[in-house]
Amino acid sequence: MTDVRSQTQHYPAGLGEDIETWLAVLDEMPVGVTIVEPGATFPWHNKAAKRILGLGEGPVWPPSDAATYGAVHADGRPYEVDDYPLARVLQGAPVVERELMRYRRADGSYRMLELSASWVRPHGRKLGICTYQDVTAEYEARKELAETAERIQLALDAGAIVGTWVWNVAEDLIVTDELFARFFGLDPERCRQGLPPREAMVSVHPDDHYGVEQAVTQAVSRGGPYRHQYRVRQQDGGYRWVEASGRVEMDEQGRPTRFPGVLLDIAAWKQAEEARDLLMREVDHRARNALAMVQSLVRLTDAEDPEQFREEVGGRVDAMARAQGTLSRSNWEGGVLGELIQAELSTYAAPEQFTLEGPKLTLPAEQVQPFSMIMHEMATNAVKHGALSAADGKVEVAWRAERRRVELTWTERGGPAVTPPSRCGFGSRLIARLAQQLNGELEQDWRPEGLAARLTWRA
């Protein structure tokens, strides 16, 4: 009778029970193999195991310095000897299959290993066998993929990504997700099955059609990255800015095959861009106005006395600079009336020489500079001829506002006796012109005890 085993199993000649031959075969395997016998001092490692673990020649088990090399837990603690899968299996634990381990090599580098461990009883003797591979690259790739997916999900949750697509260029069909379909006002089921790209273009702003077509054509012809911004019609009839980002994949013959991408909602970015551009135009406009005013100040200020000319022009330019600084700090949105008065009077008078009283009121941007210049002229006149020219002199400024109609009073006390000016100088003409810029009226009463002025305008 024929032996059944001889019909189903064929053993290579020469192996038999030759342990050295078997070990030589294991030594050439690309997978790391470790064999250990309970009670033995050292295990046996094949070449791949030594290469993967970064071990030198000679006995290496158990690790003589666990702080230098060996498996480590997630918190950095080194494995105890009984923590290793092979040790657990030999102590009666279930077979270990594809367990991940973080391993620190002797050179200080870390690797991710995937291990399987079990035991066998050849000839009645129990042996533990562990096989493993270095899966660091695969592990890092999976980790990066998971992190990328998490970032994409966060972007989706935050509303930054409003759709994804994959365009099969050869079939001229574009497949999109439901977000894309909703954003473009398309049928989600048709988008899942695939539709011609031209159908997705119907919601693009008419003025942006040509630019989108040109950008897509260029990307498909050259391959590689694609990025373009355009507007998409929404259900309410309005348009929203998006940025399409993708990459055209090419085959070996240089022909486009796939064109995946994402759609980002950039409406907020566009609003910020528009606000920035508006601000820059406003800054440019005000800078030109400021330059024109400086030129007028220089041209019209009396230059017979060079020292006085330098002082007056310098003071007025400084006042303009303070007004511009206020506008800059408020992003060119305006200035607080009380702070503007405080800035001018503080330049020429001690705190005890003036009082301010009135509600908090913000002037629009276009009124900040003319109002600040009026306060500057009033303050310098008080220093030269009025209350602030005397140690005991004082200026009282009060204002009130009703339905944006502002009334401000300027009262000087404690200075020298005042008489009306015999002629209208540049300062007086400048104040009158600045009041006109406010669309306001300025009344001045030259009382003997001090100037009393009243300025009214609509803020």
Could you characterize what this model shows?
This protein is α+β, with helices and mostly antiparallel strands and 459 residues long. It has 3 domains: 17-139, Beta-Lactamase (2-Layer Sandwich), CATH 3.30.450.20; 159-265, Beta-Lactamase; 272-458, Heat Shock Protein 90. It contains 14 helices and 18 strands. It has helices at residues 4-8, 19-27, 47-53, 85-90, 136-158, 178-184, 188-193, 197-200, 209-222, 267-300, 306-329, 337-348, 365-384, 426-437; strands spanning 32-36, 44-45, 70-72, 96-104, 110-120, 127-134, 161-168, 173-176, 224-233, 239-250, 256-265, 335-336, 354-357, 362-363, 394-402, 405-413, 441-447, 450-458. The strands form 4 sheets. It has a 6-stranded antiparallel sheet. A 5-stranded antiparallel sheet has the order 8-7-11-10-9, sandwiched between helices.
Assigned CATH architecture of the largest domain:
2-Layer Sandwich
The number of domains is: 3
Question: How many beta-strand segments?
Answer: 18
CATH C-level category of the largest domain: Alpha Beta
Residue stretches low in confidence (pLDDT < 50, at least 5 long) are 1-15, 57-67
Query: What distance separates the N and C termini?
Result: 117 Å
Mean pLDDT figure: 81
Count the helices. How many?
14
CATH topology value of the largest domain: Heat Shock Protein 90
What order do the strands of the largest sheet run in, or round the barrel if closed?
2-1-6-5-4-3
